[in-house]
Write a structure and sequence with these properties.
Layout (H helix, E strand, L loop, with lengths): L4 H41 L6 E5 L2 E5 L1 E2 L2 H12 L7 E3 L2 E2 L11 E7 L2 E9 L4 H12 L3 E8 L7 H12 L5 E6 L2 E7 L3 H14 L5 E7 L9 E7 L2 E6 L1 E2 L2 H13 L9 E2 L8 H15 L2 E6 L2 E6 L5 H14 L5 E5 L14 E5 L5 E7 L2 H15 L4 E7 L7 H12 L4 E6 L3 E8 L4 H13 L4 E8 L12 H14 L16 H14 L4 E6 L6 H21 L7 E7 L10 H7 L1 E6 L3 E2 L6 H15 L7 H6 L1
Parallel strand pairs: 2-4, 3-5, 7-8, 10-11, 11-28, 14-15, 17-18, 20-21, 23-24, 25-26
Antiparallel strand pairs: 1-2, 6-7, 6-9, 9-10, 12-13, 12-16, 16-17, 19-20, 19-22, 22-23, 25-27
């Protein structure tokens, strides 16, 4: 029986619809699988394995929890490289921020003659009022507080850094100190090389062992005033009483002229600032050469004034010729005063004289002539103020007809005598003679410049000042470098050994530890690191622990022997720093050791700080305003 046509058409339609639905479903599944696979692969390649991918028809749904917003956005971008971005549905979440990273805390302190400035970011728990009060107590000057705070706990090493920075600033009138957790960098200026070395040693000794420090202390050339040179020639040869030069080239030129003029014995020429003319070495060389042609005498240069005093009995024609040639050759700035002493006659009586002596114990005796009671009281008062009230004995007498400048010559001579450890002063109308001993190598040059300035033009004086090394203070601590060398010598003769596999000091090494303890007690508070080292046998972690225990054991042994160890630290390095081959028994024995090393300062890079940048920006903004008024005083303080 044949089916009606209508039913056949309907059946074909239904079968076709079913097949179409089946094909469409299969195609959609394939598209979903392909999209999901491509997007998942792109996310995995970018390291986003935390993201989940689910296909829903043409849509690609991303789920999961990203660590931060940047990671979420990066995952969306990775998915958009594989499918159209309009098909990507973002259902990802961002993990809540549990704790933001703490900022870098630091404080920069600048101290100069105008006061103290402090800038930086400090923890809110730091009492800034207490800190500024401590800084204000250093010199009583103003403190500019430019600090900001952040509500985070103090990082490790912050308190030690701030305390040490304030303590170091108390020793440095001109300095810049940068303090951060565990690190303090110091940039400062010292008045002399000796002061620089002293500051470096003191700052290194007083730093806590856990704190890293960087030191950059400079000793600039001194300012010499007046700029002085004094050269004399007698029967024994030539010598300098004082010598100043603006640089090494000028010094070499002056010394060469003096050597050609018969310089004998040691010499020194201070390099500093303050020369009256760039042609100072030319004037000095010409003057020394002229004195050499005359024969004997002295030439003194104080700034631009030159005084040439010939020896008594010098030929008048030679004197006139040399002085005339020197006046013509000297640079324009310099003025020459030439003196030819009159020959003595038989009728001349002994000149009036004033003398003062200072003993090594500091006792001063004054004898000789003074013009009147007022002058005698003035000289006595000045001497007691300079040398101490109880140390002065006066036995002077009043004499008429003394030169008008007699009080000035006597007082200037006493001031010069006060610069000596011991010596003698003799004042006559023609000359001031000072002899003695000084513990400062610069005293001779200072006295020469002082007398040249006070006595004036055409005044003669003679200096015979001997330099002696000052006695070492009984309580002076030895240099830390010497302490390190002495400990190394002790260990070279007797090594510190331990019981096998333990941190117990072997009985035969007790005497070695005793010797090291004696040295460290003499050395005082030096920054010392006690290092423990092992060979490579055994596990690295065990060797590290053993070396740390042994270093700590030596630290405890020193404490038990009453050695101050507050500035010491014990560090174990394990097998990481061998000094010999671990492949031999002899090498392994050398690698098993205890070392004592000084904790030395780190070099400070000359980089611009935040404070300097703000100062520079401020100066630039002021210069940019055409109507802004500048202050000379403020500019000088910077």
């Amino acid at each position: 029986m044949r089916l009606p046509y209508f039913f056949v058409v309907a059946l074909v339609f239904l079968v076709s619809a079913g097949l179409s639905l089946l094909a469409a479903s299969f195609a959609v599944t394939k598209v979903e699988e392909a999209s999901e696979f491509a997007v998942r692969r792109a996310l995995d390649l970018k390291g986003h394995d935390w993201a989940e991918v689910q296909s829903d028809g043409l849509r690609v749904v991303l789920t999961g929890t990203a660590k931060d917003e940047a990671m979420r956005f990066n995952a969306l971008t990775a998915a958009g490289t594989e499918v159209d971005t309009s098909r990507v549905i973002d259902e990802m979440e961002v993990a809540p921020t549990t704790q933001l990273a703490a900022p870098r805390f630091s404080a920069e302190i600048l101290r100069n003659d105008s006061g103290i400035s402090v800038i930086g970011l400090i923890p809110v728990s730091e009492n800034r009022e207490v800190l500024t009060d401590r800084l204000r107590d250093l010199d009583g000057g103003p403190v500019s507080d430019l600090m900001e705070t952040a509500d985070y706990p103090k990082p490790k090493g912050w308190d030690e850094a701030i305390s040490y920075a304030v303590e170091a600033l108390a020793r440095l009138p001109r300095a810049k100190i940068s303090a951060s957790p565990g690190l303090v960098k110091i940039t400062a200026i010292a008045d002399s090389q000796q002061e620089k070395e002293r500051l470096e040693q003191e700052l290194t000794r007083t730093a806590p062992p856990s704190l890293r420090i960087g030191l950059s202390i400079s000793a600039p050339r001194p300012v010499i005033t007046p700029f002085t040179l004094r050269y004399l020639i007698d029967e024994t040869g030539g010598q300098f009483d004082a010598c100043s030069a603006q640089d090494e080239k000028a010094r070499d030129k002056i010394i060469a002229a003096a050597q050609n003029a018969g310089l004998t014995g040691p010499y020194s020429c201070t390099i500093g600032l303050g020369e009256p003319s760039p042609r100072w070495p030319d004037a000095a060389a010409l003057s020394i050469r002229a004195l050499s042609e005359i024969g004997q005498g002295t030439v003194t240069i104080s700034d631009a004034d030159i005084t040439l005093v010939a020896a008594q009995g010098t030929d008048t024609m030679v004197f006139d010729r040399v002085v005339g040639e020197l006046e013509t050759a000297l640079p324009e700035v310099f003025v020459l005063h030439a003196v030819l002493p009159e020959p003595e006659t038989a009728e001349q009586s002994g000149p009036p004289e004033f003398s003062a002596t200072r003993s090594p114990e500091g006792l001063v005796q004054m004898r000789g002539r003074l013009g009147d009671d007022t002058t005698r009281d003035m000289v006595d008062s000045y001497a007691r103020a300079a040398f101490g009230f109880e140390h002065v004995h006066t036995a002077t007498r009043i004499a008429p007809d003394l030169p008008a400048d007699w009080p000035i010559r006597v007082l200037s001579g006493l001031e010069a005598l006060s610069q000596l450890h011991n010596g003698a002063l003799t004042v006559t109308p023609d000359e001031v003679v000072l002899t003695g001993v000084s513990h400062d190598p610069k005293t001779r040059a200072y006295v020469a410049g002082f007398l040249s300035e006070k006595l004036g033009e055409a005044q003669d004086y003679t200096l015979s000042i001997t330099y002696q090394e000052p006695p070492e203070p009984e309580d002076e601590l030895p240099d830390p470098e010497v302490c390190e060398e002495r400990i190394a010598e002790v260990q070279a003769g007797s090594k510190i050994a331990f019981e096998p596999g333990s941190a117990t000091v072997a009985s035969e090494s007790r005497d070695t530890v005793n010797q090291i303890a004696d040295i460290l007690r003499e050395c005082g508070p030096i920054r010392l690191e006690i290092q423990g080292h092992t060979d490579s046998q055994g596990r690295e972690e065990m060797n590290q622990q053993l070396s740390q225990s042994r270093a700590q054991s030596i630290l405890n042994e020193l404490r038990g022997r009453r050695v101050p160890t507050a500035s010491y630290t014990a560090v174990g390095y394990g097998e990481t720093q061998p000094i010999a081959d671990n492949g031999t028994e002899e090498g392994r024995e050398e690698n098993r050791r205890i070392e004592f090393r000084l904790i030395r300062p780190e070099p400070v890079a000359n980089s611009q700080t935040t404070l300097e940048a703000m100062e520079e920006e401020s100066e630039t903004s002021l210069d940019a305003e055409p109507d802004a008024e500048t202050s000379d005083a403020d500019a000088g303080d910077q």
